[in-house]
Specification:
4 copies of one chain form a homotetramer. The first copy, chain A, is of the alpha/beta class. Chain A is built from 8 helices and 10 strands. The first copy, chain A, has a 7-stranded parallel barrel, surrounded by 4 helices. A two-stranded antiparallel ribbon of chain A has the order 7-8. In chain A, strand 2, helix 2 and strand 3 form a beta-alpha-beta unit. The radius of gyration of chain A is 17 Å and the shape is globular. Chain A starts with a strand and ends in a 7-residue tail after the last strand. The relative contact order of chain A is 0.17. Chains in contact: A-B, A-C, A-D, B-C, B-D, C-D.
């Protein structure tokens, strides 16, 4: 039976600021990328999010980002590899503490925002991120974009890897995402998005923006929880996958 | 043979800001309280400090504080017990990651500054701190002030405890520290400070500010590394303890 | 004709985090207390909020708080008077820059949250706050709780003062607010809240929680903008005041 | 009589962290670039630094940087022009408040670190910085690198401009600085550094790294205060300039 993981960025509230519909999304995902206090999240939010994940049986991953709360970790910062490695270790360790307190194991690490994008194109930065992860726990799974430098670095270093795809994004023929703003970058139609994901899982193929079919491997589908419509989509895609004989499972059961 | 631990607050540099003579102090202490990025310290500093501790065989402890870098964690903040518990978990986890990366075990936790002082007088806050520590690792040793509420809470909760004394501070008859600013609060003479510590370790006694001898138990002596004179004192007290047949040993060999 | 100001805490969004319905509330208030980047708000939010205030003719005030974003400035921090004075100057100056850029004058200062509460009970802290305000611009109006130490300090120092009342809060016989959690602390019924405010403005009287009428002076009524129901109440109270022959006017036209 | 300004980056301490020998440098410079709390500095430090400047008659300028205390504002951050403009306004306003409190006028603005470098090469970013400055006070002088995009943007927007040179840096034939790390990037010999500055001021010429003389205009010489040797150099260069009939004067007397 085919298996796929559904992952979502969660635990992004901070202090009095609420972001995302975590309570409503967590029951429907199999892996949660939990913010670690740098670009979003705080210790109380992390404690609460990890508890919710445990309750609903969603596997917990760290979602480390740049120390840029005001920019939500979305702005490129010219960090050194040593800084990136140390930031990743710090944040993984902090989140792992809340997992320990709940008696569960941290499953994976997915870098956030600008760190995800920068590392994806920079092998040296990716090596630093992967080294940081491995030195803490070599069984942690790196969740990253297929074809990115992060995947290359993880393979080099010997870190387990999971590949993620985006239900709502178009792909170029080389497997990279169509840049935001370009025609075909977003898949607006929900039904089409769901059909594409099912085909990716079942056949390992997707139609690129040019119309040509390309091969694509997916261990996890990234979904969003930032509004009622997004949450509704998470439910729908989960149900559609099951109806098509695909089992939802956390990364640790796939990799 | 009598044993005593020498502990010092270390790893307090931050970014471009240097604080403390860590390289010079670490070779002479047996336990290091390492700042965890809230009141002081940052991930690169933590990585470097843990490496130095490993190199010189100083045991590593977490030194969690309030999220108040501008106040260096020295200002009382009216946190809830749940906040204190979550802050402590976050910081211990973050530091533990750097220990894991170096293949060493985190030995102890000593709350910093205002958190140390507030918890020392507030049993509910102390319980939250101790609960936070225990849920991460019940073998972590709480290093706290003898007679404080922290020690009471740790006993209640079943956390290993180490008692610290201050070489340069005077004591009231009830074993509490003479308040800063009051006559007798500071022991200015180095020789006297050293003689007092030796007597505390050997006889379990110290002269209170009133002149009356009181009983006092010590597992660790807190020393400072914030200037050349402080560093010189650390060397002297270590040498004097050894000359008096007292062995310097980390907390884990004492508790 | 009787006049009253309606003030609301605004500009509390931060980076990607949205808080409050500023666009909907600003058209209905006469004075806006704008967060200054310490407990809430950021430079882009401040720029946008000041522009909105100018557009809708709401007077702009600074709403300085503690440097405690994670606690939203609601937690007591044991600052020195010198720290409070410097924090207040910094934040007022920062907000005044955005007013200058829009060609409008900063009207008032209302300390936020824990700073408001602590200063209200601590004359020395209030003096520091008032000194900080006066040294920047002695024409700035302090907006504070009637009967509090802030009002006393402002009178001492010679700072213009405006007194605020709360539509949704009960009062003790001495004019202080009934503590949250005690019976009668909140006025739940909207109609009653509005009737109380109208009576305060017209007669200078309100029924204390004991039932006894007390004298009360009001220059401004504090209203909230943190949800659709709150915004609806702002509209209703404004309309009711006008229907009762009371003119809504910013503090600078009242003091 | 020829005039030149000596400027230095000051007020970079933060909380318990001390940086720079401000008390020793301020008496010898004519313009101080004061950190504004984003990359360095805090409200108490700003208050103290402005007081010192007033006492020793050094003109005060704002030294706004990126919100990156952990990186000391030295790391490129991919901010939008709107963010840069708002950050600059916020920080100038905050510092101007401390000037107002001391009854002195803010003289100039010199962007710090990565913001200085990024804006120097990016006209759109420079326009945003200059627009931010001008909207607060069109008489503020922009202090920037000769030949940089900041100077171009200031000319476009109509902001007064002062050009700075570096005593300890080598120049390419096109007037740009020799990149750090390349041979000739640093002028190590103090005597040579001083002779070069005197020639720049008197003749408007300097020998480029290639040996060829180039024309160069200087309104201000940047000096450092981060150690006893640096402070000694500030004294020496000031004395040498005077001995050569050059008057030290703040920017406002030169531009």
């Amino acid at each position: 039976m085919k298996k796929i993981d559904l992952n979502s960025d969660l635990g992004e509230s901070f202090g009095a600021y609420k972001m995302g519909l975590d309570e409503e999304v967590i029951p429907f995902v199999t892996s949660a990328n939990v913010a670690c206090g740098y670009h979003a999240g705080d210790p109380l939010v992390m404690a609460k999010t990890v508890k919710l994940c445990k309750k609903f049986n969603a596997a917990v991953g760290a979602h480390p980002g740049f120390p840029d709360l005001i920019g939500f970790g979305r702005r490129n910062i010219d960090v050194t590899p040593a800084e990136a490695e140390a930031y990743v270790k710090y944040q993984i360790g902090a989140l792992a503490a809340f997992c320990k307190a709940e008696g569960i194991k941290l499953q994976h690490v997915k870098p956030h925002g600008a760190l995800y994008n920068m590392a994806g194109k920079d092998l040296e930065l990716s090596r630093a991120v992967c080294k940081g992860i491995k030195e803490i726990d070599p069984s942690l799974i790196l969740l990253g974009l297929s074809g990115s430098k992060m995947i290359e670095a993880a393979a080099e270093i010997g870190l387990p890897v999971a590949l993620e795809v985006f239900a709502d994004r178009g792909y170029e023929e080389d497997g990279s995402l169509v840049k935001r703003g370009k025609p075909g970058s977003m898949i607006e139609d929900e039904g089409e998005a769901i059909r594409r994901v099912i085909r990716i899982v079942k056949e390992g193929k997707v139609a690129a923006v040019t119309g040509k079919d390309i091969s694509i491997r997916a261990d996890s589908v990234c979904v969003h929880g930032d509004g009622p419509k997004a949450v509704e989509f998470v439910r729908k895609i989960g149900a559609a996958l099951k109806e098509n004989g695909i089992q939802l499972a956390p990364l640790s059961e796939i990799i």
